[in-house]
Amino acid sequence: MEPEFEKEDRFARQTRFAALGQGGQDALGRSSVLLVGCGALGGVLAQWLVRAGIGRIVIVDRDIVEETNLPRQVLFTAEHARAGAPKALAAREVLAQVEGPTSIEAHAAHLDADLLLRLGASVDLILDGTDNMATRYLINDFSVARDIPWIYGGVVSSGGLILPVLAGRGPCLRCIFRDPPPPGMLPTCDTAGVIGPAVGVIASMQAGLALRILSGNSAGLEPALLELDAWSGTVRRLTVPRADDCPTCGLRTFEFLDSSGSRTDAVSLCGRNTVQVMPQREREPGSDPSLDAVEVQLRDAGLVVRRLGPLLRFEADGHRFTHFQDGRTLVEGTEDTGRALSLVARWIGA
């Protein structure tokens, strides 16, 4: 008769890490995280957090999977790219295969102030996996206003920056970067490129800090701006004081959080030659606009339309369009926001 061996607990080797222990693991299992963006940085973050056994992860991403994502976005496959799958939904599908204890919630949506207020109210930490500063300033406002920590992460070329923002301890994003940079001032993955290992380095450091915070071990954490480079192998820690005159954590004005009614109607996406166009009319809270009418309208105009779950895809005027159920439209083949707005008005309407 074969001897019976007791199955080792899934997290046994993790809990043997003395700084975490079983108490820290239990805390992870009770924790809830909002992950904004699940492309390059976000995909690595999601993997580590789900595999570590956090209780709940809420994923928000407005984008779809493309072939050019595959060199550095570890969650996705060529099949996802061929289907033009929404990243948030594809991420949930892949992460569910871990079969861990984590509850995975996914939203294929643009994170504006209203959605952040709704989704962020019940989480313990917000993680930055996005690729644009506008969203980061919005998250920073919310974090400071609601006393919910967040971890900024940005990567371009071979390196990047990390900043844990802990309310009342150390600087917030606006202490360091007072105002959003004008378009074209900062290098992007489109202008400077990016390598996959740089993404992995930055996201893994973010994930490590996240586990420390969520497990209840942040008491000795001194927030600082970290600069890492995967090509040169260099690491710099920059201690930046909190600014008393910071508009957000010093003066406690939350202009990005309070300006949801004046959002940008169109924005060019980093490195994509694509513009995202937002619906010009506000949706009623909780409403699910049907795609049927738009699909009929496009077919009546003689266009070939593909229905892929919560989105429609079609081509017109030399551009590819992806129209989402929440009213957003991605226009590929241009960085001209004015032209994108005009094209969406022509084919879909306001």
Computed Rg = 21 Å
Give the uncertain stretches in residue-range form.
281-288
Helix content: 25-40%
Mean pLDDT: 90
Q: Report the count of strand segments.
A: 14
Query: What is the CATH architecture term of the largest domain?
Result: 3-Layer(aba) Sandwich
Q: Please report the number of helical segments.
A: 12
Distance between the termini: 72 Å
Strand content: 15-25%
CATH fold title of the largest domain: Rossmann fold
Instruction: Return the domain count.
Output: 2
What structural class do helix, strand and pairing data support? alpha/beta
CATH level 4 superfamily of the largest domain = NAD(P)-binding Rossmann-like Domain
- Please report the first level of CATH classification, the CATH class of the largest domain: Alpha Beta
For the biggest β-sheet, the strand order reads 3-2-1-4-5-6-7-8
Pfam families: ThiF (PF00899)
Keywords: Nucleotidyltransferase, Transferase
Organism: Saltatorellus ferox
GO molecular function, one term: molybdopterin-synthase adenylyltransferase activity
Descriptive keywords:
350 residues; alpha/beta; Rossmann fold; TATA-Binding Protein; 2 domains; 8-stranded mixed sheet; 6-stranded antiparallel sheet; 32% helix; globular
